[in-house]
């Protein structure tokens, strides 16, 4: 698992428009990379809506917010359209990004264990260094807490 102070793992993944997005695209900006289990599910919707509501404040703090799940581009676009989301969502259909950030883990629900994305958030500073690493976050109020961290950079 990653830790504060580590270099953010490099990545290239498609966003909801099918455009390739890479870590290097954000040199000189802070980056919030939040991983969530599935488009259009209760917790994931709360989190996406809260990040969208604060999008202008993140932008004013020289910060880009990217959501990541294993859903495909079409699923992401439908999720964005349904809730008028203004953040980019990355389609990690291969799971490479989830593996690199250590969020693909064994999870247990109702006594059943299976692999899945553990809701996690990583904040990288303008030099690509991880200044915050959180695994197993609660979606409610999370975007505001992340914004406060970013404002302190």
UniProtKB/TrEMBL annotation:
It is an enzyme of class 1 (oxidoreductase). InterPro entries: AhpC/TSA (IPR000866), Peroxiredoxin_AhpC-typ (IPR024706), Peroxiredoxin_BCP/PrxQ (IPR050924), Thioredoxin-like_sf (IPR036249), Thioredoxin_domain (IPR013766). The keyword Disulfide bond applies. It comes from the Bacteria. GO terms for biological process: cell redox homeostasis; cellular response to oxidative stress. One of its GO terms (molecular function) is thioredoxin peroxidase activity. The active site is at residue 44. One of its GO terms (cellular component) is cytoplasm. PROSITE patterns: THIOREDOXIN_2 (PS51352). Pfam families: AhpC-TSA. Its EC number is 1.11.1.24. Residues 2-153 form the Thioredoxin domain. Keywords: Antioxidant, Disulfide bond, Oxidoreductase, Peroxidase, Redox-active center. Residues 1-21 are annotated as: Disordered. Monomer. Belongs to the peroxiredoxin family. BCP/PrxQ subfamily. This is thioredoxin-dependent peroxiredoxin.
